[in-house]
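HOLO CASE FILE
Compound: zinc ion
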Amino acid sequence: TPLHPFLAALPKCEHHLHLEGTLEPELLFELSRKNNITLPASTDPAFGSVETLLARYKTFKNLDDFLGYYYIGMSVLLHASDFEALAYAYFSKAASQRVRHAEVFFDPQAHTSRGVDLAALVEGFKKAQARARADFGMSTELIMCLLRHLPPPSAMETFSQAREAGYFADGTLAAIGMDSSELPFPPPMWKDLYDAAGSGGIRRTVHAGEEGPASYMTQALDLLDAQRIDHGIRAFLDEDDKLIARLVRQKTLLTMCPLSNVKLNVIPSIADFPLKKLLDAGVTFSINSDDPAYFEGYILENYCALQEAFQLSVRDWESIAKGAVMGSWCSESRKEELL
Ligand code: ES4
Ligand code: ZN
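Model generated. Tokens follow.
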């Protein structure tokens, strides 16, 4: 597209990226050999090679079809050095696409349930963050996501462990989030967890309105006091005008992921992404990559896919980029630098 050089050079913020979703098949197989983790190739031939796995990633039926591969993939991560390698590879790629500030998710329960210590995850990620700062001048924040498909007490226990380790108080973790399957696990299940975070002054975001209805977004705001919503596309697909007006009024940031939505059949094609509605309504939103190793594109490919479908102006993009800075969880002085 004609704006490609402009989009490539535009300083970016990433707000919706799962570090485990950046595990490229090459590194996945390398770590499975190094750590002696057997992949289920005998029951699923997709795990035969890098090529067959990449071919399998071409289409997913829905969120759960993808999540099956996502959780098996991350089972090769064992040591602090594995998590450091994963995160640093992502930060390097992001720097090459001019990401200046990245707020990234990880799923502690998916690792602690396999016997990996929370401290090992944190140690590896922190080393990668320090290198990203030194090598690229990139600011980064970690958001701990709790898993909806596990029982609420497991989420509460993981949150408490992080809080007792001082990770929120010392800035190691910037916020909590909530991800994994959505439809069977609605927001009311997580009220105690979000109350505990809110009363402790800890920031809160929630994946909502991806496969679940717009009403789950309203519940996330009302019951969980969510300060940000990850995805939130269903407010627009369901045309919930009352909710949209509220998002505008409250300036709630929606961290949207267009290529992910197409890959997981939330929308049939990129042309169905409600970009015009977002811009016309004046919603604060950012464009993000979600699980780029699985969805055939990092942040720049998301920007470019939208540009090809919608032919926005330079001014539209500058206003999207500004909204992303303003919605970031960084200091006011860092915002000044990013603007
Ligand atoms: C996810 Cl795309 C998506 N939705 C919900 N949970 C997730 N975890 C990783 N990617
Ligand atoms: Zn996500």
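CASE NOTES: The beta strands are 12-14, 99-106, 139-147, 175-179, 203-208, 228-231, 253-256, 285-287. The CA atoms of residues 145 and 177 lie 4 Å apart.
CLOSED: yes
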